[in-house]
Amino acid sequence: MNVCYTYLCRYLFVFSTISVAKSNTEKLDNIAACSGIVLGNGAVDLFLGDEASFDAAANIAYTAYLSEAFAGGYEQSDIQIADKILGGDTDKVIVAYNTDAFSNDLYEEIVACYRLISTQLIERGEPTFTNDNKWLDLKEKSMATIKRMLKAG
Prior knowledge:
The chain has about 150 residues and is mainly alpha-helical.
């Protein structure tokens, strides 16, 4: 009986560890997805000639994303996947705009993403703004790179 109990405890420990890791990467992935949506919405503003709105959206999106990526203790492979999610969702909004497929559903998704990002900034606000110097250069370079890419051609 003790042997069964020991195996059960090990199984539950391993299962709970996997569940916690999965939920942690889900948070990163969700923040990345919404950051991409907000960044894509800002890109549309840039296309329409409103660079200040793009800058504000990019700043909010990258601050929320980087606050989770740096403070969450994630593996590099998880961050690489989240980066791809962010880029894919940015493209999703841009493609919708370019193909006249910008729907009410996409608008609702954008609004929901601004809410999620706002919550992220409130939850991680203090460390994010206190340690902004640690990732300010990365954020500024990322914003400049995406702006350059969007303005090309």
